[in-house]
Structures are given as structure tokens and as C-alpha cells.
Amino acid sequence: MPSTPRAAIIPVTPFQQNCTLLWCEATKRAAVIDPGGDLDRIQAAIAKAGVTVEKILLTHGHIDHAGGAADLRDALKVPVEGPHQADKPLLDRLPETGSAYGIDGAKVITPDRWLDEGDTVTVGDLTFDVLHCPGHSPGSVVLVSRDVRFAQVGDVLFRGSVGRTDLPGGDHAALIASIKEKLLPLGDDVAFIPGHGPTGTIGQERLSNPFLQ
């Protein structure tokens, strides 16, 4: 019987990014996914859930997803895993990007572990497969639990939309290929938490997402 995942979505930054506190119900071990900022809100959610954070996971290197990662790592004394190494230039420029968007205090973050296609990530007793899904950014990754039919998709896919590709390193054709070749085959019953907006299912997006028709 697979372990049960639990998740709390914590909207952070002026971009209302879905920072996700994801934990294994059996072990109460957790990961913070994409801590873009507003660390007080993230730490309040950790305390409310009564879980122990064992790592920080990054789906990609944009400021609203990674801007708070260095400070949270220092506060929690945990490693950072992800994204794919192709997003290193984005992570190296976080302070400058933050200033441009009015997000102060962002620091450069170098992950303790880069993630690549075929890697696995654990949170407590949960295991996630890593899919490298470039397009929104060169190093975007998606985390998939095939056991419990759940994915954390960052800004690759949204309910009714897809990630923007007009930022440096964006590639619309690559993004659509990532979704069609890697996400849609996961199965219609797979639920996902995106980087912004409401949750969805692969089946719902296959049927109604205008970018995939």
C-alpha cells in the first residue's frame, strides 16, 4: 500500500506562486517545493502541519519559485534538490531578477543536487520520478508519483493554460512537446499541483486545454 501524500498550498510573492508543503502522512516528513518568498508564511504552514521538513525542492529557477530558497535552506538546515542544471543561469541571477520585479533579498542558490530525467526524489516514504520538461525554462522539472497518481508540475502546465515562454530561455514548441510527450502519457487520472492557480488533472487538460488541441 503506497504511503499517502498530503499537501498544503501556500501562495507566495506578488505573483501568487503556489509554494507547496508536501508531506508523507506515515512519517510526517516533508518537502517545501518552490519557496519563492514570504518565508514567515511558509514556516507558519510547516508548524501548523506538524511536519519535519527534510528538503527543499525546486521545479525551476524563476524568482517567484526560487527567490526564498537560500534563506529557507539556512533557516531549516536542509538540502536543496532541483531543478535541472540547465536553469543554473537563472539561479545565479536571482538577486538581479528580484530587484527588477521588486522582490528584495533574493539570494543566489546552488542546489545540493541537480535533478535529471530518470532520477528519483524521496519525501518520507514517498518516491517521485523526475521528468525534465524544458520550454517554460530550460531546466524545468516535473515530479511524478506513479503510485498515488500525483504530479507537481511547476509552471509547465496549468489548468486551462501552459507556462509562458516569452522569458529568457523559453521555447513554446519545446514546452508543448514536453507536455504531450511526458505529461499526457502519465494517464488521465493523474492529479497535479501547478505553480500558479487551481489544481487539475491530466485528463481534464487533455480534453479542454486550448493549448493542447
Automatic annotation (TrEMBL):
Domain Metallo-beta-lactamase per the UniProt entry, residue ranges: 16-196
InterPro entries (UniProt xref): MBL_Glyoxalase_II, Metallo-B-lactamas, RibonucZ/Hydroxyglut_hydro
Keywords: Hydrolase, Metal-binding, Zinc
Cofactor(s) this protein requires: Zn(2+)
SMART domains attached to this UniProt entry: Lactamase_B
Entry's Gene Ontology molecular function annotations: hydrolase activity; metal ion binding
Pfam family, one: Lactamase_B
The name this protein goes by in its record: MBL fold metallo-hydrolase
Lineage: Bacteria, Pseudomonadati, Pseudomonadota, Alphaproteobacteria, Hyphomicrobiales
